[in-house]
Fold:
Amino acid sequence: MTSFALPLPRARTADSAGPVASALDPLVAGAARGDEGAFERLYRAHVGRIYALALRLADDAGHAEQLTQDVFVRAWERLGTFRGESGFGTWLHRLAVNVILTDRRSAWRRTRRITPSGDLIDLEPEARSAPPGIRLDLEQSIAGLPPGARTVFVLHDVEGYEHAEIAAMTGIAVGTSKAQLFRARRLLREALDR
Amino acid sequence: MTCDQVRDRLDGFLGSALDPAERSAVTRHVAECAECRADLEAARFLADRTAGLRRDIPPPADLWAGIAPRLAAPRRRLSVPLGWLAAAAVLLVVGSSAVTVAVLRRSTGAIDPVFATTEARYQQAALELDDLYQRVRDSLTPDTRLVLERNLAVIERALGEARSALRADPANRTLEAIVVGAWRRKIEFLERAASIERES
Ligand SMILES: [Zn+2]
Structure:
C-alpha cells in the first residue's frame, strides 16, 4: 500500500510512537511470525489509541468497536509487510486510518452521493446542529461536524497528520483538506462559544 | 501576503514558529481581513482545548475476544499473482463446509466461534481479492472503476446491514446465513473485478 511509505506524522503527542514502540520490537517480530500471544500484547498496548481514533471518526461507539477489531485483524494480516521503517504504533495508526476511511467511503457510496470527481465537500450530509442555547463540549461538537470536516480535523489537529498525508490517505486535494480544517475549526468554535 | 499564505502560517503564528518578518505580515493581514481573523480566532480558541483531548481511550469492553477467532494463520504476501483464484476457491470451499456446521449449531447470546472463524476466512479471501483489485484498478478506465465500485458498494451495504443485524441478534442463525451469503456475493464480485483484463 502506497500510504505506508508516507512520512511520519508530526510527533505532537508524547504517546504516539516513542520509547514504547522500540521496547515492543520483539513482540512485533513474534507477532509477524504468527505468535498470537505476542500479538495480543501488542493489541493491549495499542488498542486505546486505535479506539480513540475510531470513536472520533465513526458514527457511534458500537461501530467504533467493530472498526477497532477490523483494524487489528487487518494488522495481523499485514504484519508481514511491516518493515520497521516507522514505529509499529505509527504503522498501525496509519493502517487504522486506512481501514476506517475505507469503511467510511463505502458508507458514503451507499448514499449515492458520489460524483465521478468525488470531492468530499460535495457528498457529505449536513452537520447535525445542536439545539440553540445548549453548550456542547468539544467531543460532542467534533461528533456533530460534517464527516469531511470531522475527518480532517481529527487527523490534523488531534492526531497530528500533515495536509499532504491527509490528502494521500483520503483521496482529497491538499487545498480541500485545508479548507475542511478551517471550516471545522469555525464550526467548532461556533458550537462551543454559544 | 495572500489569504492562503496567511492561513498556512496560522498554526506557526500561534506556536510562535514564524520569523519576525512573517509574523508582522500575518499581524498586518489579519488586522484588515475579517476571514483570516476569524480563522485565527478559531485556531486560538481551539488550540488548548484540542491539546487536552485524550489520545488513548480504552474501549468499554474487551475487544480481544472478537479479534482472536478472526486471526487465521498468518499468510505471506501472494508471490504468484495468478495463484489467487485457486486460493480464494479453496477458502470458499473450506468456508462453506464450516458454514454448514455453524448454521446447524445452536448458538446463544454471543457470536458463535465457529461462525466467527468462518467469517474470518471470507474476510481473508475478500482482503486478498481486494488487494488484487487495487493492483488492477489503476489500469481501468474511470467509467469501469465507477461501475465496479458502485456495484461493490451495493454488495457492501447488504453485508454491512447483515453484520449489524447479527451483532444486535448474535444467536439468529438466519442472519448468520444472510451474512455468509453476502460475503459470498462480495467474494464472487471481487473475483470478477480483479480478473478484468487491463484496459489501455
Ligand atoms: Zn485573508
Q: What stands out?
A: The radius of gyration of chain B is 26 Å. Residues 78-199 of chain B form one domain. Chain B touches chain A through 49 residues (CB under 8 Å). The pocket of zinc ion is lined by residues B 3, 6, 29, 33, 35-36 (CB under 6 Å).
